[in-house]
Amino acid sequence: MVPFFKNLNIASFLLSLPFAVYLSSCRIQHTPAPVPKMAVPESFVRSSTAERVDSSSIGEWPHRTLFTDTKLVALIDTALARNPDLKIALQRIDIARASYGISQGALLPRVDAVATAGVDRYGRYTLNGVGNYDTNLSDNISGSSRIPNPTPDYFVGLRSSWEIDIWGKLRNGRRAAYTRVLASEEGRNLVVTALTADVARLYYSLLALDAELEIIGENVELQQKALELVEVQKAAGRVTELAVQQFRAQLLNTRGLEGRVQQEIVEAENQLNTLLGRYPQAVARGASIEKQLLPNAVSVGLPTQLVYRRPDIRQAERELEAANVDVAVARAEFWPSLNLSPYLGFNAFRPNVLLNPQSVALGVLGGLSAPLINRKQVKGNLVIKTAQSREAYFSYQRAILTGVSEVVSSMKGLDNYRNVANVQRQEVDVLRQAAATSNELFANGYATYLEVITAQRNVLDAELALITTKRAQFLALVGLYRALGGGTR
């Protein structure tokens, strides 16, 4: 089949290119909606206007600055180098970048190297059949210029398709793809922040479990001695078998608690090893949790800074921006699109003259197309993109609300748990004295065995509660660091 515009001269073909470039540089008609500014409180705490608000934040600190335990720092560094989730996040960045590269290519003409061959047998009473027959009778046609029937058609050259971006649809698509690249990078930062916090959380949990195991071991020894003492008193006839059974039951209960804590240590170590990207093995620990130091005061900065620093908020903002751009692209689908299809190559109906300079053919086909019957499909796509944009808006709003709430909760937790720990520490001292007093009174016959058992149990519960509060203090610090977007530097 003879290509359309086959006889178009070179000048008209070249003149069409500047026109196409001019159209592609036209002003964008569909401007995406900007990302709205979210209202945030002036500070995380209620303060008087005379109070100075510190604009610095521990969220800006590297994890090596906040965490002084070298064992913990080494574990975090290992996790950042080997964690599978972080490697997955890096692959998502590569995927987003590749999508951006595809969107960039959509702005440029697609050029394909083409080699085609076909054959047509025209009927005698068809336009081409009569025309070719009449052409072959001409005195000017001879030899290889005669048109055979069936008529082959050979083409070797370049064919191109190019959509001229009149309404900014392709440029907006490129912008959306680039914004999603930025969102994927923030997603990677979010994984880093969460990974740093999770490693620290499990590490302090391990230290707390170690302390609990040590406390339980000490109480097992004390209860074992108490059991031996009551057995001696039973032999002397001062107590009954019931007292011996009560002391033995308490000892067995404490040993059972010891086994449960040991299992919790194994599970915590395995969770930590998974984050580190390695198989189960012993986790090196530094100083005990009782010797770990908390900062006397922490700075959290301002809520307005949180919006620009916390990765999940920044990611939600990028996703909202991309969703708004998608809406602009969907609106542009209603307008006609201009497509050019130029070609340049060798075209002939005989293979022996295909590469002859006189067989060079070129042409260009341009056309406008707009949705007509399928407008419902285009409208449906616009509804979907608009809903996705609103969803992204609410996700962005939720991320900010969650971020501010987490900062306030963790910040208050540091203060409250510090006060609780001070009270519990005093409680432990009093109960230890009470336990020692009950032992002396029991040995001299002034206290019952139930009072001794109760005193020992109260000491154990109070010491374990103190460790739990100490652990909660460090988890509040880790939670605050994570809430402020720390760990990405």
Number of helices: 11
Order of strands side by side in the largest beta sheet? 1-2-3-4
CATH superfamily caption of the largest domain: Outer membrane efflux proteins (OEP)
Query: Would you tell me the structural class of the helices and strands?
Result: alpha+beta
Sheet with the most strands, sense and barrel status: 4 strands, antiparallel
Total DSSP E strands: 4
- What is the typical, i.e. mean, pLDDT? 88
The end-to-end distance, rounded to whole angstroms, is: 64 Å
What portion of the residues fall into strands of 2 or more residues? 5-15%
Shape: elongated
- Which architecture of the largest domain would the CATH scheme give at its second level? Up-down Bundle
Order of helices and strands: HHHHEHEHHHHEEHH
Count structural domains: 2
**CATH class identity of the largest domain:** Mainly Alpha
Radius of gyration: 39 Å
Range of helix content? 55-70%
Low-pLDDT stretches are 1-17, 19-28, 47-53
Q: What is the CATH T-level topology of the largest domain?
A: Outer membrane efflux proteins (OEP)
Membrane topology: Lipid-anchor
Keywords: Lipoprotein, Membrane, Palmitate, Transmembrane, Transmembrane beta strand
Protein name: Efflux transporter outer membrane subunit
InterPro entries: MdtP/NodT-like, OMP_efflux
